[in-house]
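Entry 14. Structure prediction run on the chain below.
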Amino acid sequence: MSAEVEPLQRHFRALIEYRGADFAGWQFQPNQRTVQGELEGALGTLCRHAVRVHGSGRTDSGVHARAQVASFRSSTDLGTERILRGINGLTGHDVSVWQLDEVPDDFHPRHSARGKIYAYRLLLRRSSSPLIAETTWHLPYGDLDVSRLGRELAGLVGEADWSAYRAADCGASNTVKSLRRAELRREAHDVLVLEFEGSGFLKQMVRILVGTAVDVGRGKLEEGAMLRIRDAGERSGAGRTAPAHGLCLEQVLYS
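Output returned:
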C-alpha cells in the first residue's frame, strides 16, 4: 500500500487593520486578548487545523494598525475570498483582514520587509474629542511650536544608533536603523500627524521620539537637543514615552 500523500501547504499573506484599545498587543499571550491570538483562533476554526500566524513585527498594547502584514500556511481547499470572509466573521469588530492573497513560499512578512511607516496623531486643541480620543494624544497646551517641532524631527533623518530612543526592556541586538523620513502633516479637526519612515524601529522608538519632540516644541528642551540625545546614547536624556493610543502602523514596505 502506498504511503498517504501529505496535502500541499498553501501560503497566504494578509493585510490587517485593527484598533489596539482592547488588545494586549499583537503577539500571543496566555489569558490575554491579542491580535495574533484572535486571528489564529478564527483560522483554526475555519481551516479545521491549528494555524500559526506570523506578523511583520509586534505592536504594543493600545497601538493600532492600518496595514499590518502577516502570513500563514494551511492545507485548506477553501478559496481566498471564502477565507477572508470567514476570518472577518469569526473575529471581533476591532480587527479586520481587508486583503488576502497567496504568495510564494519564500515570502516572510518580517524578513522580506524593507521598511515601515508609522504615524503618530496629536490633537491640538483646548477641548478633548470623544470621537477620536482612542486614536490621538490630546495636547491642550497653547504653547506648542509646530514649526520648531518639525525642524527638530527633520534634523534626525539618517542612519544612526537609536539606543537613546528605545524602551528599557528592548531586546534588539542591532540598534542601528535608518530613519528615512520624519515629517509633519495636518489632518482635519486640529490633528497633527508625525509620520516616520525607516528601515526598522526599536521597541517604543517612535513613541519616545514623539514624547521628546513635544518637549522641544513646548520649549522644555532646546532645539538640537534630540540629535545630541541620540548621539549620547542614553535613554535618560530623552523625554517621556508618548501614549500608545496615538500610534498607528500605516504601512510595511517591500521590494
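The two ends are 47 Å apart (CA to CA).
Filed with the rest of this week's runs.
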